[in-house]
Design a protein that fits this description.
Blueprint (H helix, E strand, L loop, with lengths): L20 H7 L5 H21 L2 E8 L7 E8 L2 E11 L12 H16 L8 E10 L11 E5 L12
Parallel strand pairs: 3-4
Antiparallel strand pairs: 1-2, 2-3, 4-5
């Protein structure tokens, strides 16, 4: 079978790696400004959810052992509800707000990751949902009006069925 567009077939076991997989690995290295910005956003989101919403953070940066691409930024508890949280960190005044960056393609990836997470639990929760937390960081650290803004969007449609959105 021919590789999909924008992919180059590379044998690493039986996987096909994206043509720019090396770039993704570099971007996730510690010390990288983009990676550091994302980590800062996730930390601020976790603090906000704990402090303002009373969530309990179960796990941060969860990855499936079967498919390393399946990643969840935060998994939290809101009372009895298991909450999968996608964190989108942007510079203040970004053209595309973080909420809108969770498009259908991203939702498919999140659905796979959520299903993988649920499959590894001993007992499935009665209810679960997806939330998006948008973190707007100041354009320059220490700039005037340089505070971070956190916006929480609850219950984003992702899962089919009653009691699951």
């Amino acid at each position: 079978m021919a590789p999909a567009r924008n992919e180059k077939e590379t044998r690493a076991g039986s996987r096909t790696l994206p043509m720019f997989g090396w770039l993704r690995r570099i971007l996730s290295l510690p010390g990288n400004p983009a990676g550091a910005r994302g980590a800062t956003g996730e930390r601020l989101a976790a603090e906000f959810l704990r402090r303002e919403r009373g969530f309990t953070v179960v796990v941060r940066n969860w990855r499936s052992s079967r498919d390393r691409r399946a990643e969840l930024d935060l998994v939290c508890r809101d009372g009895e509800v298991l909450v999968f949280v996608e964190v989108k960190t942007r510079t203040a005044g970004a053209l595309v707000p973080g909420y809108y960056a969770v498009n259908e393609r991203k939702k498919r990836a999140l659905r796979r990751a959520c299903n993988a997470y649920l499959a590894q639990l001993a007992a499935a929760p009665r209810t679960f949902r997806l939330d998006v937390v948008e973190v707007a960081l100041p354009a320059a650290p220490g700039a005037a009006g340089g505070t971070s803004e956190v916006r929480h969007f609850e219950n984003i449609p992702l899962f089919p069925g009653p009691g699951r959105s």
